[in-house]
Structures are given as structure tokens and as C-alpha cells.
Amino acid sequence: MTAGPSWALAREDAAYPAGLHDLDDAPPALFGAGSLNAVAGLEPSACVTIVGARRATPYGRGVAEELARDLAAAGLVVVSGMAYGIDSAAHRGAIAANGTTVAVLAGGPDVAYPPSARRLHREILSSGGAAVAEVEPGTTPVRWGFPARNRLMAALAAVTVVVEAAERSGTRHTADAAERLHRTVAVVPGPVTSPLSAGPNALLFDGAAPVRDAQDVLDLTLGVGVVSVRSLGPALEPDLAAALAALADGAATCDAVTARLGAAADRVAVALARLELLGYARADGAGRYARTGLRAPGEG
């Protein structure tokens, strides 16, 4: 259990989040820990829900964190479920942007689950965010609570973004709940060879909106061009532009980029390090690179 100020909003309360009223089985009360201001009077158009696989890839976690960071910086509240993988990455991205994030929990709002998420729970609350649940503080999560909380995540936000998920998963349940509520479902497409792309790609096939970066989500939530976060990085020298193009084409290691470009390995290593410093690429602990959403001058 994690300590923090607790509160409750009755369904009849004017501060009860507007989106929850769209549920046929809206909770009679929403229990919370942390900042009441993060939730009070919350409108779906002010929120985005980001969900996905627990056993996410470094790529998926990086994308979720970057999306959440940019969306929180643009003023949206980032909603997720504090699970391993994509959910945790989304919360951390919002916190990194000094934005607001809300965790929807299956147990009481003061009960961090999984237990390893206690630190993240504290960080969410201390950053001005909140944890909410439809069960009272102190309640230990039970199995039925997880699919039940998925509908709350879907209802709170105008857009639910799926980043990596198996075709049959809790993430798909959240997306289905969003569709039933006539909310927008958006997905980050993935390689067809990855099992974690099965969920997003199936939703995409069924008509979900594709997401390339935070700007796409903002356009879906607020309207095209209302808020812009799609920024340009500095101009790139030819060797950096070539290395970036190789990353975009799927070369994910220094060796792969070297082979793709037919360049000297030491020069490629320097180029990748510079791209990371400039914000065009990110590297994981295994030395694999992926490009970020930052665009170079002249790119579409």
C-alpha cells in the first residue's frame, strides 16, 4: 500500500469526470489518491489513454514514452493502467514532461499493483497526478477488477492509443470498450512479423486511426492543426542524414547501419552518437537504435 491523500467523487458530483457518465454502469463513486485537481471536471477532450503490452519491446516502450511526453507537454492528461511495459512507459513520459498523468487501478487507488510499481505510484502522485479506482482505498485487486477498469480508461479519454498488444489481450478489451463508447481508437502500427503487432494491426485493419507521432493524436483529439508539436530538428550533414535514413529503413545496430551504408564502422558509430545527441535517435541498453519522431528539415 502506498500512502497519499484520498478522496471520492460521487456520480452526482459536478466534478465527477464527464466521460464516465457515458458508461451504462458508471461507478457510483470514483475513489482517488493524489491530486483531486487532476481528475475533477475532467473532459474526454482533455485526455488521451495510452495502453499496450506488458511484455513490450524496447521500441514499444520508447514510442509510448515519447508519445506521452509530447502529449503531456501539449497539455493533455495521459491516462493508463500502471501495468508493466507500455502503461508504465506512458506514465513516465508524462511525468518527464512535467505533465499530468492518471493511473486507473483494479484495486484501491492507494494500492500499488503490481507491487513493483510502488515507486511509479509515488511518482505519479508526487508529480501532481492521481490514481483512481471504482473500489475503496485499501481494496486488494481481484481478477475481475482488471477488465472492469479497462472500460474506465476508455471512457475517460476521447482517444485511446494502442502501442503493441497481442490480438487477444486486456488492451484489446480497452479498445473494444472505447469503440462501444464511440470514442476514437488509434494505433501505432508494427511489423507484421511481430506477435505484439497483431493487436494494433488488427485494429488498423478494422478501421482504427494510424499514429505516427503525437501530432496525429493531437489532431484526432483537438482537431487538425489546433495544437502543433511536430517540430523540426537541426539540419543534418550528409553522413548523418544517411545514417538516419538507414535507421528509418530498419537498420537497428551500428553493424547493420555500417553494412547498409558501406561506410567505416567508426564513422557510423560517431554518426549514431550524434543523432542521439541531436534527438533524432534513441538507443537501448543492448545497443539497438531507433529513430524518434523528430523530423529533419525537408522531411514530409
Describe it.
It is a single chain. By secondary structure, this protein is α/β, with parallel strands linked by helices. The protein has helices at 58-73, 86-96, 118-126, 145-156, 170-180, 198-205, 214-222, 238-248, 254-261, 265-278; strands at residues 6-10, 29-34, 47-52, 77-80, 101-104, 130-133, 159-163, 184-188, 209-210, 281-283, 289-291. The model has no long low-confidence stretch (mean pLDDT 90). It folds into two domains: 6-222, Rossmann fold (3-Layer(aba) Sandwich), CATH 3.40.50.450; 238-291, Orthogonal Bundle (Arc Repressor Mutant, subunit A), CATH 1.10.10. The strands form two sheets. Strands 1-2-6-5-4-3-7-8-9 form a nine-stranded mixed sheet, with helices on both faces. The protein has a two-stranded antiparallel sheet with strand order 10-11.
Largest sheet descriptor? 9 strands, mixed
Summarize the amount of helix as a percent range: 25-40%
Number of domains: 2
Percent strand equals 15-25%
Report the structural category.
alpha/beta
Write the H/E string, N to C.
EEEHEHEHEHEHEHEHHHHEE
Termini separation: 48 Å
Low-confidence stretches: none
Number of strands: 11
What is the general shape? elongated
Question: Secondary-structure map with pairings?
Answer:
Layout: E1 6-10, E2 29-34, E3 47-52, H1 58-73, E4 77-80, H2 86-96, E5 101-104, H3 118-126, E6 130-133, H4 145-156, E7 159-163, H5 170-180, E8 184-188, H6 198-205, E9 209-210, H7 214-222, H8 238-248, H9 254-261, H10 265-278, E10 281-283, E11 289-291
Parallel strand pairs: 3-4, 3-7, 4-5, 5-6, 7-8, 8-9
Antiparallel strand pairs: 1-2, 2-6, 10-11
Helix pairs in contact: 1-2, 1-7, 4-5, 8-10, 9-10
